[in-house]
Amino acid sequence: MKNLSKICSVLLLTAVISSCSTPKKTASNSKLLGFKYNYCAPGVPYLQNEISWKDSVRTDLSKTNISAHDQLLCRILGISSYVNDLYTINHDHSPEAISRQVLLKQKITSRLLLAQTQLQAVAAELDCEGERADMAAAYLDGINSKRNTKLTVGSVIIGALTTVATAAISKNSVQTAVGVGGGLLGAGLGALTINPKGKQLEFYHDHNLLRTIWTEPKTNTDYPEFVWEMLHEKSFSNKGDVTLSQSIKNRWLQFEFDEHIDQTQEALLFGNGGYYRSDDLHTRATMINQLQSTIRSLNQDLSSLIAFITRME
Fold this sequence. Notes:
It comes from Pedobacter lusitanus. This is Lipoprotein. By secondary structure, this protein is mainly α. The chain has a domain at 31-48 and 115-139 and 199-311. Helices cover 67% and strands 3% of the residues. The chain has 11 helices and 2 strands. It has a two-stranded antiparallel sheet with strand order 1-2. Residues 18-28 and 189-195 have low confidence and may be disordered.
């Protein structure tokens, strides 16, 4: 009977080990190295070859019947004087005036094109970074899913072995010990599947576009200047009482962190990165997608100004 008890104990232990063991992930894993470093950052920093935006001299555009929204946009783009001059000579059909109109339109179009390009560049980086976070999260989800499957199988095996052992053992004390031990092991494995911490991987982002939104610095270090100005102008938000940057941060606090974020998670998400779990990667991907949507929506502001310039032809 003692031998049978020992055999049952060995079988139970073997089931636990086989169900919980997972192959060790090393830094040499090509997938892990692919996720580790940020390949989405621009090759040339946005601010390296930046031009001077915004009007250097205030120009009154009220006589052009331009909307207050588009007038503010002209000031940020630095094209108010061009728009004013174009309006002034718009009905002059002399060769000199026509030549001047063409030159002014080229200057305006050049600024608008650069602004659109900067919006697209930031949106592209966010799209790439969001996909990178999603891929890393999916990789960890796959590992965690396999782990949970093994734990579940282990729990089932332990339950079956416990049933067989308690039926085969006639001595009450041993039978009770095996039954209780097997039940505890099965419950332990079941608990691990309910709240697993899961695996981690290294995930870095030195150029972190989320950081500037979260920390709200006074000086721009990460965004093209035009995009930065648009994100920090209250008039471009729906209500006009907060900037787009503040609105994004408020949504993150409310929907992603339930009005509270611990320092460890804050340092991970808005710093240079580190060891991520799947949940944090999903959170990062969600915030990136929200920011990307806001950046893309700024094209709506440009469209009204482009329509106004077109009507002047």
